[in-house]
């Protein structure tokens, strides 16, 4: 049951308790190593002690936690929800498919239907393989790139999941230094022999990429990168990457797991008109049902027919039907226009609040991912102020980070209530900055960043 709290109570600074969440989390700590399945869902990623940790149901742009509190959700399942939670049309299609069977002994024609839809939608798509998630799809893309090129090294820029091919990059640095790619996370359990097979490059730096290609001449199978995350690249940057890839005969893979679908249904490659050889998509493509895909040009993908890339549940009908319906609904609902409207409204409203309060800073970035950055007197205050922001927003019934991920289900009312909650939160932050005592306003632990990303 979704508790539809009246607006006033939703945004009032009330006495929300998260007792059940905290109790359950304590128990999880005894049963589940690392508490959660996704690092971004750990309590330490929010205002631990104030933010909800477990949800019991979600609908549209809102969810209810297991203590019965209702929230506006701007985390949107780390971007996986794009139409809104429990979308009627997608869920109906899924329910009908469940009645027809979720997994057959034979193949499902939905595999071919979705492949056609992806080919029609994503510029780099001529052939398609499926998975159930983003990291898994990245691993498949890397296997295909290595198999097709006969080379082994991967140059990468971004976050690409938990698999060995990628995590081996952390052997390149001393984790204590906090350098590439996941500061402070050691590659425990990742075979040391993979060290040097995967090398990071800095976003925006074509010289660095060119040097790496020259220093690893004829050894690089692919450049794997997130083409953007929350800001647009400098003009010509992605074109420059593509030119270098072509010059060195290297397969260019765009990881659009996070940046795909919202800005353009055809992906960032369509939005910026830079077409890679392969693309990885997942998350929002199926609005909350497990699904991922590797798509690419025929000459790069076709050799995969001789590679061992195979898994029972990749044929699952639920993900296929959810993806087909989600993509068609995005087109039907003119999602690109609506995302621009929502993002522009948020950015404008938040910037007005910042200006009216006389704070220094701004809300900027892509309208699909508006991000608030306050200028602070001291860099060390960053994590405290971020945590205070999340704490105050949570206690006002809004779950978010300092960046927001819209869905098509966010209404004008959700947007207005959120801008009001942000305004009230900024007042609290301002008082802490003026008194020089943010600490006394924090009633939770300081948020910990799980890892540093290469693409902002
Ligand atoms: C760009 C990118 N690639 C890959 C992944 C991994 O996807 P998944 O969590 O579905 O395995 C993520 C997840 O955040 C991502 O943002």
Task: From the structure above, extract its key features.
single chain; 456 residues; alpha/beta; Aspartate Aminotransferase, domain 1; 7-stranded mixed sheet; 13 strands; globular; binds pyridoxal-5'-phosphate
> What fold name goes in the CATH topology slot of the largest domain?
Aspartate Aminotransferase, domain 2
Query: CATH class of the largest domain, anyone?
Result: Alpha Beta
CATH architecture assignment of the largest domain: 3-Layer(aba) Sandwich
Query: What does the largest sheet look like?
Result: 7 strands, mixed
Overall structural class, as computed from helix and strand content, comes to: alpha/beta
Shape: globular
Strand order of the largest sheet: 4-10-9-8-7-5-6
What is the share of helical residues? 25-40%
Task: Specify Rg, calculated over alpha carbons.
Answer: 22 Å
Ligand kinds:
pyridoxal-5'-phosphate
The tally of structural domains comes to 2
Strand content: 5-15%
> What is the H level of CATH, i.e. the homologous superfamily of the largest domain?
Type I PLP-dependent aspartate aminotransferase-like (Major domain)
Low-pLDDT segments, ≥5 res: 1-13
| Number of DSSP helical runs | 14
Sequence-ordered SSE layout with sheet pairings:
Blueprint: H1 7-11, H2 19-31, E1 55-59, E2 62-65, E3 70-73, H3 88-100, H4 110-121, E4 127-131, H5 134-149, E5 153-157, H6 164-167, E6 198-200, H7 206-215, E7 220-225, H8 237-247, E8 251-255, H9 268-272, E9 278-281, E10 292-296, H10 298-301, H11 317-332, H12 335-357, E11 361-364, E12 371-374, H13 382-395, E13 398-399, H14 412-435
Parallel strand pairs: 3-13, 5-6, 5-7, 7-8, 8-9
Antiparallel strand pairs: 1-2, 2-3, 4-10, 9-10, 11-12
Bound molecules: pyridoxal-5'-phosphate (PLP).
Pyridoxal-5'-phosphate (PLP) binds next to α5.
């Amino acid at each position: 049951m979704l508790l539809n709290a009246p607006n006033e109570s939703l945004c009032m600074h009330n006495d929300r308790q998260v007792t059940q969440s905290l109790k359950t989390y304590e128990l999880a700590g005894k049963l589940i190593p690392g508490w959660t399945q996704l690092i971004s869902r750990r309590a330490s990623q929010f205002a631990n002690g104030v933010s909800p940790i477990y949800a019991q149901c979600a609908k549209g742009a809102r969810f209810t936690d297991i203590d019965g509190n209702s929230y506006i959700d701007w985390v949107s399942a780390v971007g996986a929800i794009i139409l809104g939670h429990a979308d009627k049309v997608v869920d109906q299609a899924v329910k009908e498919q469940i009645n027809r069977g979720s997994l057959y002994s034979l193949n499902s024609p939905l595999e071919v239907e979705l492949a056609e839809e992806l080919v029609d939608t994503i510029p780099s798509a001529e052939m398609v393989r499926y998975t159930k998630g983003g990291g898994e799809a990245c691993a498949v893309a890397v296997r295909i790139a290595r198999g097709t090129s006969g080379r082994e090294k991967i140059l990468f820029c971004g976050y690409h999941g938990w698999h060995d091919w990628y995590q081996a990059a952390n052997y390149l640095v001393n984790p204590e230094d906090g350098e590439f790619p996941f500061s402070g996370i050691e590659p425990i359990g990742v075979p040391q022999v993979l060290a040097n097979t995967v090398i990071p490059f800095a976003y925006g730096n074509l010289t660095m990429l060119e040097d790496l290609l020259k220093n690893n001449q004829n050894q690089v199978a692919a450049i794997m990168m997130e083409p953007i995350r929350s800001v647009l690249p400098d003009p010509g940057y992605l074109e420059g990457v593509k030119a270098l890839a072509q010059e060195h005969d290297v397969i260019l893979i765009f990881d659009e797991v996070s940046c795909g679908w919202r800005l353009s249904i055809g992906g960032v490659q369509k939005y910026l008109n830079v077409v890679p050889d392969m693309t990885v998509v997942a998350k929002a493509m199926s609005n909350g049902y497990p699904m991922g895909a590797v798509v690419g040009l025929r000459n790069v993908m076709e050799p995969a027919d001789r590679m061992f890339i195979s898994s029972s549940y990749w044929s699952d009908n639920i993900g296929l039907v959810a993806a087909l319906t989600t993509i068609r609904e995005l087109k039907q609902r003119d999602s690109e226009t609506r995302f621009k409207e929502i993002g522009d409204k948020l950015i404008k409203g938040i910037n007005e609040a910042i200006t009216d309060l006389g704070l220094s800073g701004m809300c900027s970035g892509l309208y699909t991912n508006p991000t608030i950055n306050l200028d602070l007197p001291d860099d060390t205050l960053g994590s405290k102020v971020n945590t205070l922001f999340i704490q105050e927003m949570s206690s006002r019934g809004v779950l978010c980070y300092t960046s927001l991920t819209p869905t098509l289900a966010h209404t004008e009312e959700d947007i207005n209530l959120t801008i009001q909650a942000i305004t009230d939160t900024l007042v609290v932050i301002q008082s802490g900055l003026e008194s020089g005592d943010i600490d006394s306003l924090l009633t939770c632990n300081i948020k910990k960043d799980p890892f540093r990303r290469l693409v902002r």
